[in-house]
Amino acid sequence: MLIETAKQRTTGERDSLMIECQYNLILRINEVLLIRYPQDIRDTEIYCRASKNEDNRWRRAPTWLTKRLLDYGARNHNVIVMDRGFIFNISTTMAERIVREVATKAGIQATTIQETKNRTRNKYKITSHTLRAAGATHAISNGAKHRAVQQYGGWKSLHAFEIYIKQVEIDEEIAKLHDQNKE
């Protein structure tokens, strides 16, 4: 829903690609913003520049995502060259604003402090960090091993990563309760 809403913006393709990269690759927003065209994109990999005491690394990526990035880069080559090769030449502040605006338009962004506190109507404060957490949670929910997701996402400490594991366990418990209530 978030990605479809992003595509409706005037800068929709760029915004939806940024959101898809962060969600599907479990990247920090500053790692997404440092992807360069074409040198950082291969058929099944994207080069990620280090953040938070990590090494630069190639990260496996879905072919459909790398193809979309390469196609977008080819169509916007002149602009990207002028922006020192960065596909998403925007600040982290602007990226956060885009995520919030898209989430609000999609109807999943909490718009008031009360909604955020009460989590009313299934609305949450959506940030780029939320996308990263959602990507990790989705990977684990679909059977990926916790350790593999931790390494892929670049979490050095198990404690930091346990936040995501705990959320998955909570979601599974809620799903079980819903199933029991249906019976």
Strand order of the largest sheet: 1-2
Write down the domain tally: 1
Count of helices?
10
Helix content: 55-70%
Described by the principal axes of the CA atoms, the overall outline is: globular
For the termini, the CA-CA separation is 29 Å
CATH class wording: Mainly Alpha
| Strand composition percent | under 5%
The main pleated sheet reads as:
2 strands, antiparallel
The radius of gyration over CA amounts to: 17 Å
Return the string of H and E elements. Answer: HHHEEHHHHHHH
- For this structure, what is the CATH homologous superfamily? Intergrase catalytic core
The CATH topology comes to hpI Integrase, Chain A
Give structural notes.
There is one protein chain. The two termini are 29 Å apart. It is built from ten helices and two strands. Strands 1-2 form a two-stranded antiparallel sheet. The chain has one domain: hpI Integrase, Chain A, CATH 1.10.443. With 183 residues, it is mainly alpha-helical. The protein is globular and about 50 Å long.
Give keywords.
hpI Integrase, Chain A; mainly alpha; two-stranded antiparallel sheet; globular; 10 helices; 183 residues; 2 strands
How does the SSE layout of this entry go?
Elements: H1 2-7, H2 12-25, H3 29-33, E1 45-48, E2 57-60, H4 63-75, H5 77-82, H6 92-106, H7 113-118, H8 128-141, H9 146-153, H10 158-182
Antiparallel strand pairs: 1-2
Helix pairs in contact: 2-4, 2-8, 8-9, 8-10
